[in-house]
Amino acid sequence: MALRIRSYLPRSLYGRAALILVAPIVIIQLLVSVAFIQRHYEGVTEQMTESLVYELQLVRELHLSGQRDRAQQVADRLGLKMSPAGSQTLDESPAFLDFSGRVIQRILKEGLPDVVGVDVNSRHRAVLLRAGPPGDQIDILIERRRLSASNPHQLLVLMVFAGLLLGIIAYVFLRNQLRPIKKLADASEAFGRGQILPYRPRGAEEVRAAGAAFLQMRARIERQIEQRTLMLSGVSHDLRTPLTRLRLELSMLDPGPEVEAMEADLAEMDRMISGFLDYARGDAAEEAVLTNPLTLLQEITTRARRMGLKVELLPLSVAGAVPEVWLRPDAITRAVENLMNNAARYGDLIEISLSWTTRKLIISIQDDGPGIPPEQHELAMKPFARLDPSRNANDGSNTGLGLAIVAEIAISHGGALQLGKSLRLGGLRADITLAR
């Protein structure tokens, strides 16, 4: 039951705050309408109708005693319009919301024993009372304001107007308080995707403190990224310089098995260094740009085919135009190529598909290789992990960083890397989920 109720509640902060604001106002108005308006006006109607019953009894007694002229004079003096009963039928069904009309009918019928009918509906702002024995019936027209409080709807209109006015004022105030929180959330989410949005702390003291802390954190992270980029550039240069000298020295030696083995070792060291640097560098140095993912995948597929890979880009399974998203093209290219190279190493056919929802974008790479056991999926995405030799899902340099690099790239885009079994090809299925 609680889950059902929760599914109908608003999910956004604006919606929940509006619900907290509007619900008490509506409840109070309903309570006032039921407890005050209905009961109060019914009580007032009872008192006013009971007072008028005595005047009607006097007029009826004079009329029944034969003093009809006297009864007419008294009725005129009392503001009652008395006339012989007409032939029209009385409408004794009050309107649905005419609570006071039901009270008027009940009191008049209880106070006057010879009442034939009480029409509270067919006369505008008047009540038609028909009373008397057969053959001597009279109609008495009574102004409605003498039987019930006038204009009871004015209080309802005033309540609704006051509620709307207070609701508008509260909404404006609430929006001004929630807008800084929304801007802080947008700036934080954008920074997680590699975008730097201009942000200035505003709002209440607590929100300003959170905004200032975010700016300080963002500045520290930017400094660390810049320092790491500079350090990695220096490390890359310092490590590859001696490797280049070694290659040059080996090239000057006479060819032989020992020289070939040493050159293979140097090539493996170069691949290992590239893998380490790619993992450490990530995609921090690249800025996110608005990109069409389908166009990017088409370019990746074309390059892979030129390299001899059997890659197929499947048709779109989602109707509509492909949405452009903020991402780092080089990083996504590196991630997709890592997965394709891994798939080509252990299988023959590779299929790439693109799908999306309102909140995320999914790039799927499938192959017809042996796959990875489900119990090793989490291990495969950890840095420097080693899997079963029959299928080492990481980079060919055997550094254990291939899937780890892809996972880091997906996380930096507000998404994740998910591994599973390909239902189409029977091998591995890797889904790169990116936040839109």
Structure overview:
This protein has 436 residues and is of the alpha+beta class. Among the domains are: 10-150, Sensor histidine kinase RisS, periplasmic domain (Beta-Lactamase), CATH 3.30.450; 289-435, Histidine kinase-like ATPase, C-terminal domain (Heat Shock Protein 90, 2-Layer Sandwich), CATH 3.30.565.10. The protein is 55% helix and 14% strand. The strands form three sheets. It has a five-stranded mixed beta sheet, covered by helices on one side. Helix 2 (13-64) runs antiparallel to helix 3 (68-77). The chain is rod-shaped and about 150 Å long. Residues 390-398 have low confidence and may be disordered.
Defining key terms:
Heat Shock Protein 90, 5-stranded mixed sheet, alpha+beta, 436 residues, 55% helix, single chain, 4-stranded antiparallel sheet
Main sheet specs: 5 strands, mixed
Name of the CATH superfamily of the domain at 289-435: Histidine kinase-like ATPase, C-terminal domain
SSE pattern: HHHEHEEEHHHEHEEHEEHHEE
Provide the spatial order of strands within the biggest beta sheet: 6-8-9-11-10
Helix content: 55-70%
Q: Which whole number gives the mean pLDDT?
A: 81
Number of helices: 11
DSSP strand tally: 11
Task: Please state roughly what percent of the residues sit in beta strands, choosing from under 5%, 5-15%, 15-25%, 25-35%, 35-45% or over 45%.
Answer: 5-15%
CATH architecture of the domain at 289-435: 2-Layer Sandwich
Which consecutive residue ranges, at least 5 long each, have pLDDT under 50?
390-398
Membrane topology: Multi-pass membrane protein
Domain HAMP: 175-226
Protein name: histidine kinase
GO molecular function: ATP binding; phosphorelay sensor kinase activity
